[in-house]
Specification:
CATH class of the largest domain: Mainly Beta
Oligomer: single chain
Number of strands: 19
Number of domains: 2
Shape: elongated
CATH superfamily of the largest domain: Immunoglobulins
Strand content: 35-45%
Mean pLDDT: 76
Structural class: mainly beta
CATH architecture of the largest domain: Sandwich
């Protein structure tokens, strides 16, 4: 009987151990982890953007320590919240007044950062971090666009030649300019002049010339990413401008 009792005690202890082990595995599998976007986030200069970051499964993080930072900056903090209190005294200067977290969303594990009035200098890799929960990296890519302007720079009536000029200001990153005819064929053009201003935005200027432009109706198109500017030339020297973005 004692032997059986001892054996029973051993078996009971073993069963208890297995139950505890299984419970630990289950609890570990249900712990929240930080999840960020799988692709870079694209923002245009001047707009407001959301840098996504969340806990899965969702957990109330209102009272937790939350850190948004950029490792390449000093101080590195973009937005800091400790034990439910905003601590922005250590915030990097260029982000002052431009970052915020939603308390309502924090209750559901959404720690996405709102960044207002995006600047070129905001481009970089952001670190979304909660101690004991983990870290997610968010890459922000910043761009700037504007409408190109096409003008007839010169007309040589004796040889029936025309010079067209396409200029586009306020772009980032550096744009590419192409001239296309009405059928989408690439036209040869003169050299492209690109200038980067003190605001880090690019201005591009390119000329296209040739007598073939005056022989018949033609639709040259000056294009940069996301925008195009077309000029419809009609003999003798009438033109109509159309800008599409």
């Amino acid at each position: 009987l004692n032997l059986n009792t001892s054996r029973c005690d051993v078996l009971s202890g073993r069963c208890f151990f297995l139950v505890k082990l299984q419970r630990k595995i289950h609890e570990s599998g249900s712990q929240s982890q930080i999840v960020g976007p799988s692709k870079p986030i694209l923002a245009m200069v001047g707009e407001d953007i959301i840098l996504p970051c969340r806990l899965e499964p969702a957990t109330d993080v209102v009272a937790m320590t939350l850190e948004w930072a950029r490792p390449d900056l000093n101080p590195r903090f973009v937005h800091l919240r400790r034990d439910g209190v905003e601590l922005l005294i250590n915030q990097y200067p260029s982000y002052v007044g431009r970052t915020s977290l939603s308390t309502d969303k924090l209750k559901h594990g959404d720690i996405s950062l709102k960044l207002s009035k995006v600047k070129l200098s905001d481009e970089g890799t952001y670190r979304c971090h909660i101690p004991s929960k983990g870290t997610a990296m968010v890459e922000l890519v910043v761009g700037a666009i504007s409408s190109p302007v096409v003008v007839i720079a010169e007309i040589d009536q004796p040889v029936r030649a025309v010079v067209l000029e396409c200029e586009s200001k306020g772009w980032y990153p550096e744009p590419e300019v192409l001239w296309l005819d009405g059928e989408g064929n690439l036209l040869s053009a003169g050299p492209t002049e690109t200038v980067r201003g003190p605001d880090d935005l690019y201005t591009v200027n390119v000329l296209m010339l040739g007598s073939h432009l005056m022989n018949e109706e033609i639709l040259p198109v000056c294009t940069v990413p996301a925008c195009s500017c077309s000029v419809l030339l009609l003999p003798p020297f009438l033109f109509y401008v159309s800008i599409t973005c």
